[in-house]
Amino acid sequence: MTETPGTWLTQEAYDRLQAEYDHLAGEGRAAIAKEIDERRQEGDLKENGGYHAAREEQAKQEARIQQLRHILETATVGEAATADEIASGTVVVADVMGREMRFLVGSREVAGGTDIDVFSAQSPLGSALIGKKAGDETSYAAPNGNQIPVKVISVEPFTG
After folding, report:
1. What angle (nearest 5°) sits at the alpha carbon of residue 94, between those of residues 120 and 7?
2. CB of 13 within 8 A of CB of 109?
3. Other C-beta atoms within 10 Å of 52: how many?
4. Quick check: 94 and 155 in contact, CB under 8 A?
5. Are 155 and 91 in contact (CB under 8 A)?
6. pLDDT, position 1
7. pLDDT (tens digit, 9 = 90+) per residue, 14-71?
């Protein structure tokens, strides 16, 4: 699977995010606008905690809408890689500085409700692992500049 600048998503993750976007951009916006209007009717806006809370919620919602729009517009939708080579959509078991870790190379959006750790393919660890296979050794630069050794133990497709 070739890496692209966009986020790699399974069809299921894409559909889930599209549904969330549709809800927030439609019914969600209408509901928060109604809430703000109701709070505005309560009087003095300077001291109206309900109004300010509703406006803050609106800002959070709009930020999520923009985030979802960007993810959906730049997403690469496909199935998890089936090869034994690490790519977006693969679950990796690796020895990282003597500690065994299991994680998904991909996007938190793909992982959805699972509790698996996620490293993007663009992260230092993810980019060091792309193209590697079980048994390969590599390293990546930590934020402090130290090289962190990594040994790939196993690679498998993400199944959710």
Report:
1. 15
2. yes
3. 14
4. no
5. yes
6. 39
7. 888 899 999 999 999 999 999 988 888 887 777 788 888 988 999 999 999 998 898 8
